[in-house]
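Possible regression after last week's pipeline update?

I re-ran a chain I had predicted before the update to compare outputs. Posting the input and the new output here so someone can diff against the archived version. Not blocking, just want to make sure nothing changed silently.
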Amino acid sequence: MIRNYLLIAWRHLRRQPLYSAINITGLALGMAVAMLIGLWVWDELSFDHYHRNHWRLGEVLSISHLNGTVEAGVSSSVPVAAALRAQYAGDFAALSVLAETGQNFKTGDKIIGQYGAWVQAEFPVMFSLSMVRGSTGALKDPSAVLLAAAFARALFGTTDVVGRPVVVGDTMELRVGGVYEDLPENTTMSAYQFLLSWDNKDNPGRTNFDDWIDHHFQVFVQLKAGADFDAVSDRIKDLTKPHIKGGWEEIWLHPMDKWHLYDRQVNGKMTGGRLSSVRLFGFIGALVLLLACINFMNLSTARSAKRAMETGIRKVLGSRRSQLIGQFLGESMLTVFLAFGFALVIVLLSLPFFNLLAGKTMMLPFARPGFWLIVFCFIVVTGFVAGSYPAFFLSGFRPTTVLKGFVGAGRWAALPRKVLVVVQFTISISLLIGTVMVYRQLQFAKDRPVGYTREGLITLSIGSPAVLNHFGALQQELIQSGAIRAMAESSSPTTTVRNSMLGYDWEGRDPRSFSAIGTLFVSADFGRTVGWNIRAGRDFMAGHSADSGAFIINETAARFMGMKDPVGKVIRWHQVDHPIVGVVADLVMESPYAKVEPVFFTLSADSRIHYLVLRINPALPVKEALARLEPVVHRYDPDPLQYWFTDDAYERKFLEEERTGRLAAGFAILAVFISCMGLVGLASFVAEQRTKEMGIRKVLGAGVFHLWALLSKEFVGLVMVSFFIAAPVAWVVLERWLSGYAYRASLPLWVFVVTGVGSLFVTLVTVSAQAVRAAVMDPVKSLRSE
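New output (post-update):
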């Protein structure tokens, strides 16, 4: 029986090549989009699932008051881990402190800089690192280092390197304790190419074992079997309060399964964020596939009169309705199966480009049986959705009505098709409006004043203590070489705040408003180098002894502290009074979409200095400036230069939004294209139906333009109805989306006007070919036969 249904379906598809081509192409595009989005959604939902115990792993969050709200941060202090081990051993299977670090690795004449972390010995077991060589317990030896497989091959040419010596930084002579399998890109820890033992004497964080104030670290936990994150969080939340005098802080556990998807915090709780994008694209994928199915439904029902006689005769000859439904669903399944073949080709060809847009390395999992089960269900569900309405609609015709020729006539006969067209274009126009606003919000954030001059600013990672010990000499030589105009030391790059400190006090401080405040330790030339704007007071003065403990604060910090005129007042820290000598305009150092947080700048030459900030000479080409800079720096640090341009680092902050915008734009264009394909089919059908009417009108004197307008106005009207439905829906959704940004663009009227006019233009272009062809047809041909 199935074979008979498929043979009938195949003959039917061959009899109407235009409509079959439109159906198959539309379904293929819709299915391809759904498959690509499905891969992306699965990659997002399975983030961090590489680790076998991912549902029991978590991170300690620090919850504190800031600017009248509750804020959560992933940074924590070193003694938190020891206190959790000692006081709550029944809840935790393992814990580890982590501090990120960049290091140069030397073996023979080869020097490679990489990014990794200092971790405690439990870390490799907690995160179930798959060892290619060596043991996960290797970091119990302070002189050991674990390498990622790719880094080991780059450094030694092989992964069989356990026991081999390697020099890390300038002074650490370590041995390779093991090589672990490269972590997949959809893991939080994928960037770490090496792990150093926390107990190594050269670890700067090792001395912070009793410093509850310095929130420069991360603490990871693994719960024991049966333990619950919320219940354990309730027990440990007040752990740090006795150790932070005059302040308020709670700690909370953030499960690994929520790190990636729940990355936006609101009032101290991690909520939404990435999960919203997953839901959005999943919804878009379903909508695009629905558009393709609507095309199939529309063209099938539009041609119902052509199939009505066949249906009526088969019913007279004894066919049951269930048999007719089976036949029409068989046609739908065959069409979908053919479309899936084309969709698979489209996906395979476009996947490299899609990966580039999405920043991923996804592949179709052909070797997994589950993939083929999903494919089978996908084809069946799509075929049923696409064919259900035509099947039940066509099979429901009464033979007496059909054989009298009354099918397809009447005022309301075309209503279902019109409704489906309105649904299609409502979806398409909504996606277009959303895409325009994504790009508008992106550009709005890019145009945000950042409070300093990014152009010509580079950051140099310090690889040797000799650079700090001879900073003055290096600065003078670089300026004399003509490579730079200014240079300063800093504990953070200009595009992030790496240090947050507790324990600050000042006159009038609200004891309930207490938080880790972003702190930059800089040299006196920092402000002149980055080009910040002094709003009150003065800049740091090099060689001025009174500035050795002075602070410069940003405007947000002044408001947070409740100081209208902060210059001359003091900040008390570690039982020492530090004068405020200046206030600077807010520097956008974190997310360009978020509000600026309070930041303190203070002079320091301690171990927290890790970067040089340089203003290259604008009179020189960048390449020549770098060529002059490199040999001078190498006299103090022979390791390869590790530097980046502030412009580039700032642009990377928009990478996720740019990817979202490009993907949304691509899917919106495909949605419009699929909808227009449906219009082509419907316009062709309408023109075919009204051929004789057009002939009579031409004989009576109607011009081509009049006939074109007559055939086009119906579709223009439907698109206008779609626009007036889509506009308020899009406005509500976009207002809610934009409310998630502290720094957001407005939602202007012109976005809706331009999208509406554009939709009308595309509609006219789409239907004009069929309308004009019908309008210019020779009346003799159109009136020749009945």
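Follow-up from reviewer: compared with the archived run. The longest strand covers residues 92-107. Marking as no regression found.
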